[in-house]
Backbone:
DNA sequence: CAGTGCCCCTGAGAGC
DNA sequence: TGCTCTCAGGGGCACT
């Protein structure tokens, strides 16, 4: 499930296999992947060249000549890879961009959740979740004052709060469990019960964890592969996610798994106790 | 407006 | 063996 570090890894791969290439044909094998009219999408892009690939949160932004931007979200299992034109096409490949250099950029997505939307460059912030997306989880963009302020105004649980991309961009289920474990915060803690100290520690954990995971090319669980078909290395670094029933690396207590807002959630009941407002 | 819950999808794995 | 059921989950959307 690509989260920010995985999407950034994909972006870097795409810069090498797609940037600078000119499109001379597009096959759309599963129409729902494209939210535009499929024929208009194809006609608008044929003849265009990919000039750059940017990222905002978990969204990829393919920049084309002719002032066009394709917003691509991988959701659960979307992936890109390249191969020589005419290569084999499996049943989960839904979109193929043919380049003039006789290579293809293929989009594969087993669960068909991923979406692509073509818009005029400059209007991409009106597409889906980009309308309300929060700051990037970096030292410069994700300010402590801002974080403390939005926490105080939310009575919901901290885990779904962090999964909400309008609060801070890029966190998914895996990194949420990791940063809450690092910061010793219970996933069901109401957001407005966090102390300023906890908020500060949590913010630091988010920034450092995303940075560290990006450096290690993301986490490979299930099927995530980067644009070169390689796995990330960060799965070896996970402390909480996927470790239910095992001893907490910090205190040895058995980690437990519960459901929070429909999401599987692993945490240490000893290190991450539920606290009241005055604790 | 904030929060909740359903839905989109398929494959893996469990249970019978 | 083979069927059915459950689970995995990001984000859009309807609803409270």
Residues:
């Amino acid at each position: 499930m690509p989260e920010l570090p995985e999407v950034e890894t994909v972006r870097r791969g795409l810069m090498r296999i797609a940037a600078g290439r000119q499109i001379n044909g597009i096959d759309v094998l599963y129409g729902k992947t494209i939210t535009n009219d499929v024929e208009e999408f194809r006609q608008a892009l044929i003849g265009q060249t990919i000039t750059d690939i940017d990222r905002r949160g978990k969204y990829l932004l393919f920049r084309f000549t002719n002032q066009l931007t394709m917003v691509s979200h991988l959701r659960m299992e979307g992936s890109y890879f390249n191969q020589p034109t005419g290569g084999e096409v499996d049943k989960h490949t839904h979109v193929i961009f043919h380049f003039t250099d006789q290579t293809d950029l293929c989009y594969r997505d087993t669960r068909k959740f991923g979406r692509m939307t073509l818009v005029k460059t400059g209007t991409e912030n009106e597409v889906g979740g980009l309308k309300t997306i929060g700051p990037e989880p970096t030292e410069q963009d994700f300010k402590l004052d801002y974080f403390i302020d939005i926490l105080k105004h939310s009575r919901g649980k901290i885990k779904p709060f962090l999964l909400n991309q309008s609060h801070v961009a890029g966190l998914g289920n895996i990194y949420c469990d990791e940063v809450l474990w690092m910061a010793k915060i219970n996933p069901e803690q109401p957001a407005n019960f966090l102390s300023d100290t906890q908020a500060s520690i949590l913010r630091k954990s988010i920034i450092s964890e995303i940075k560290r995971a990006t450096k290690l090319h993301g986490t490979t669980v299930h099927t995530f592969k980067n644009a070169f078909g390689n796995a990330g290395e960060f799965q070896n670094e996970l402390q909480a996610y996927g470790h239910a029933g095992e001893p907490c690396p910090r205190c040895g207590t058995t980690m437990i798994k519960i459901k929070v807002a429909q999401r599987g959630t692993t945490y240490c009941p000893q290190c991450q106790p539920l606290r009241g407002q005055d604790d």
Q: What stands out?
A: The radius of gyration of chain A is 20 Å. Residues 148 and 199 of chain A are 6 Å apart (CA to CA). The first strand of chain A starts at residue 23 and ends at 28.
